[in-house]
Task: inverse folding
């Protein structure tokens, strides 16, 4: 019986079948009648209609199984607080989805996949490298093995959304954003048109602040990653914003300071890169996305879902009689790099941003819950998920096909070199870093003062023994 169950589970995850294993459930009398199992599933970020057809299909193949899907949470902060508090009290859902950064602080709240359901090698062969580095991890309860802690349905990255008309007008020799940050800066300067009252008629790009740029923090994190920076020392016991150095072009640099100075330069009036300020967009959503949809900024940074936001906002503006960008003039280019991808031996870098699905340590039906997740993660169901959301796949066997999409292909193309930037207690870290950036952009702190303050605040959040960062992790050896 166990061998049969295991075989079907492996086929479900690794061969892309449309249904998971059918457990032969028994009631308490031991008779072969289907037992009643009810799973509760918390999700945040997608509408219920995205995942519900897959859950309905799973339930149809599993008589006696019911799945309660809960997606209505006012904000991510409320979602996370609810999840953490309920699990701490011994309750909570059987399954839930969380951001990839969640694993570093809350790993103990997760029940990893049983080893009978699949191997680490199989997981690595089928899911992209960043999923392995983030979600295949050591666990103190299982000292001789690595365990799988989640199944991502997508892995997203930032890309550059640009106004084709404005690039053709001002950058006719290329007509699209540059592949290098050094050239991207020159493009932004050429595209920026000064306006009245210290504003801009058109901004070359939306960078430098976090209060009126919805993806400003994400863009800054990408720069930290590309400069070779990290928030912490190798042991995860202290922040390393002001101490970490890396070698670049035969010189030792402070990557975090480099990223901060470069990023903030776009919002500082004393910088030649100046292209954005507090009047460039509202501090309320949709911020720079609305400005882009109305032709007020030539390029912004966004994830795969930004495209539909732009189209929707442009349509609303047009209906209101406000001039807006046409759908044919919305284009997407790859994230700029510090080194030329065509000649450099350096790895390209893009920050991975995704939710992963996992199982609570409190669930009474852990195997059944993991079976459902393996079903959701199979090839056919990820194809369905991508068709509904356009979010790039986490499966290696779907990347080639998705890379050819005329609109969203760039996001799939970047998945292979995507990496996570570990954040311990991400919500608080995001607040600390955002305030640091704003103080430099507004010239209320020097970069050194801002980094020193952020470093101290982030160190306080860390556990005394440190935390386990991303891998890839090696298989532990049994003690002799």
Result:
């Amino acid at each position: 019986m166990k061998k049969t169950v295991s075989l079907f589970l492996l086929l479900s995850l690794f061969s892309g079948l449309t249904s998971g294993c059918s457990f032969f459930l028994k009631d308490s009398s031991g008779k072969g009648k289907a037992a009643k199992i009810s799973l509760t599933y918390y999700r945040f970020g997608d509408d219920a209609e995205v995942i519900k057809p897959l859950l309905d299909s799973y339930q149809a193949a599993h008589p006696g199984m019911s799945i309660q899907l809960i997606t209505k949470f006012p904000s991510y902060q409320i979602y996370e607080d609810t999840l953490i508090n309920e699990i701490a009290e011994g309750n909570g859902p059987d399954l839930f989805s969380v951001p990839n950064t969640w694993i570093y602080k809350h790993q103990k709240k997760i029940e990893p996949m049983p080893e009978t359901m699949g191997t680490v090698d199989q997981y690595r062969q089928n899911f992209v490298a960043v999923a392995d580095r983030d979600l295949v991890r050591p666990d103190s309860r299982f000292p001789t093995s690595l365990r799988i802690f989640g199944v991502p349905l997508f892995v997203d990255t930032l890309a550059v959304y640009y106004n084709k008309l404005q690039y053709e007008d001002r950058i006719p020799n290329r007509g699209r954003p540059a592949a290098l940050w050094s050239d991207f800066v020159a493009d932004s300067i050429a595209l920026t048109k000064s306006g009245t009252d210290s504003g801009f008629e058109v901004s070359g790009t939306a960078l430098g602040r976090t209060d009126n740029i919805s993806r400003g923090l994400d863009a800054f994190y990408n720069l930290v990653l590309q400069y070779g920076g990290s928030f912490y020392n190798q042991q995860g016991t202290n922040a390393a914003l002001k101490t970490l150095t890396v070698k670049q072009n035969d010189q030792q640099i402070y990557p975090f300071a480099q990223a901060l100075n470069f990023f903030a330069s776009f919002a500082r009036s004393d910088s030649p890169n100046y292209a954005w300020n507090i009047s460039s967009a509202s501090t309320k959503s949709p911020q720079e996305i609305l400005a882009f949809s109305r032709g007020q900024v030539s390029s912004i940074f966004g994830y795969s879902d930004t495209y539909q936001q732009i189209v929707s906002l442009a349509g609303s503006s047009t209906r209101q009689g406000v001039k807006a960008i046409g759908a044919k003039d919305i284009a997407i280019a790859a994230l700029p790099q510090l080194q030329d991808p065509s000649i450099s031996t350096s790895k390209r870098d893009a920050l991975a941003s995704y939710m992963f699905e996992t199982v609570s340590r409190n669930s009474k039906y852990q195997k059944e819950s993991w079976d459902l997740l393996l079903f959701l993660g199979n090839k056919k169901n990820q194809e369905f998920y991508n068709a509904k959301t356009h979010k790039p796949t986490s499966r290696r066997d779907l990347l080639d096909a998705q890379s050819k999409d005329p609109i969203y292909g760039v996001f799939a193309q970047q998945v292979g070199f995507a990496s996570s930037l570990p954040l311990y207690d991400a919500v608080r870290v995001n607040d600390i870093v955002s305030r640091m950036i704003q103080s430099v952009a507004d010239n209320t702190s020097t970069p050194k003062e801002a980094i020193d303050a952020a470093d101290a605040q982030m160190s306080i959040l860390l556990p005394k023994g440190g935390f386990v960062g991303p891998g890839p992790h090696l298989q532990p050896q049994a003690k002799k």
Summary: The first helix runs from residue 2 to 14. The chain has two domains: 2-154+355-400, 159-350. DSSP finds 18 helices and 16 strands in the chain. The first strand starts at residue 37 and ends at 42.
